[in-house]
Amino acid sequence: MLDSLRTIERVIYKNPTIDKDSYPALDNCETELLEIDSLTFDYGVGNLCSVYVREFEDSWFVDVYYFRCNDDNGIDRKHFVIAPGYQMSEEDE
């Protein structure tokens, strides 16, 4: 049901898909702290998600970093950007 509602929303609003590479990345210090957190987090309890609300070109965006332990006991890292007037790709959603 939610998938069909999201499909209808995509057709009605026709917001452009966000290009997360066009938004500024975190500085190296923040990125290193995220990597350390991801390596020391207890994934038996859950997933690790870090969210930043940041400014860019007189607007705001949400920077989301998601870490999850995979079946091979490795860590899957995902990065998402949410911004007004844009939609995420279907794969990212």
Instruction: Report the end-to-end length measured between terminal Cα atoms.
Output: 15 Å
Tell me the total number of β-strands. 3
- Average pLDDT, rounded to a whole number, is 83
Judged by helices, strands and strand pairing, the structural class is alpha+beta
Helix coverage percent: 25-40%
Report strand order across the widest sheet.
1-2-3
Return residue spans where pLDDT drops below 50 for at least 5 consecutive residues. none
Rounded Rg: 15 Å
The major beta sheet can be summarized as:
3 strands, antiparallel
Q: How many distinct helices?
A: 2
What is the CATH T-level topology of the domain at 19-82? N-terminal domain of TfIIb
Describe the structure in your own words:
With 93 residues, this protein is an alpha+beta fold. The protein has a domain at 19-82: N-terminal domain of TfIIb (Single Sheet). 27% of the residues lie in helices and 30% in strands. It has two helices and three strands. The protein has helices at 2-13, 28-40; strands at residues 48-56, 59-69, 75-82. A three-stranded antiparallel beta sheet has the order 1-2-3, covered by helices on one side. A hairpin with a 2-residue loop joins strand 1 and strand 2 (59-69). The longest helix is centred in the middle third of the chain and has 13 residues, at 28-40. The chain is flat.
Q: Quick gist of this model?
A:
The protein has helices spanning 2-13, 28-40; strands at residues 48-56, 59-69, 75-82. The protein has 93 residues and is of the alpha+beta class.
